[in-house]
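Example 260, ligand adenosine-5'-diphosphate.
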Amino acid sequence: MQAPSVVSAKDLCLTYQTNDGPVHALSNVSLDIRKGEFVSFIGPSGCGKTTFLRVIADLERKTSGDIAINGMTPDEARKARAYGYVFQAPALYPWRTIEKNIALPLEIMGYPKHEQKKRIAGALDLVELTGFDKKFPWQLSGGMQQRASIARALAFDADLLLMDEPFGALDEIVRDHLNAALLKLWARTNKTICFVTHSIPEAVYLSTKIVVMSPRPGRVTDVIDSTLPNERPLDIRETPEFLEIAHRVREGLRAGHSYE
Ligand code: ADP
Ligand code: MG
């Protein structure tokens, strides 16, 4: 039996009107993301990765085509709090402790205090930051700050997590660690994750599905279903199976003429 559809796009187009004329950020994107999948979006700058996440999150409106999130319109999905959103920069308030940063959206949504506490503790546990709740963001390393911002997105307990280059600004060693931690979190929670990255190894290591995109117009050039097992030690990246998928991603990027 197939898992239920979480994101379903059909011939999705989005054109920005600018002073220099129309920019075709998304052109006929058709894609089906099912519950529990880990989907990476990879492609050069300007191929529409962020725009696609923003359409899901109801931050941009499609020009034509269809998009459904859990069978709902983006507007309905936003109101139903269908997703958590993690941005490239941690975007934590420096004057609030980690706990208070995570609490902020819960406060806005009107959760009672005891429910806030429970959710904050659960989210901190998932990102392995238990005990850091009273620290301020500047007392944490970059990697820990990004984990805190993931905890903030997890605190709603939405089934869908949208992550836009969350580890892009971190060094490779920290990134390795967070990649492994994210896989563990994904296995524990069975969430559906849409993850934007520039890194081929990161995309291949994390994903059950890799969406290769290309710019001008922004479009999908390949969708690769990973053959790797869900259990992935870091050294899986040296196996022939891994390198084969990485090769296909690279070919997909090249076929989009992205670097000419
Ligand atoms: P990516 O995240 O893959 O780098 P984006 O989705 O940010 O790509 O952008 C896709 C294209 O749309 C780019 O050409 C970008 O310049 C353009 N674009 C993005 N946001 C806007 C906007 N608000 N107004 C006009 N053009 C935009
Ligand atoms: Mg982007």
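Summary: The mean pLDDT is 93.
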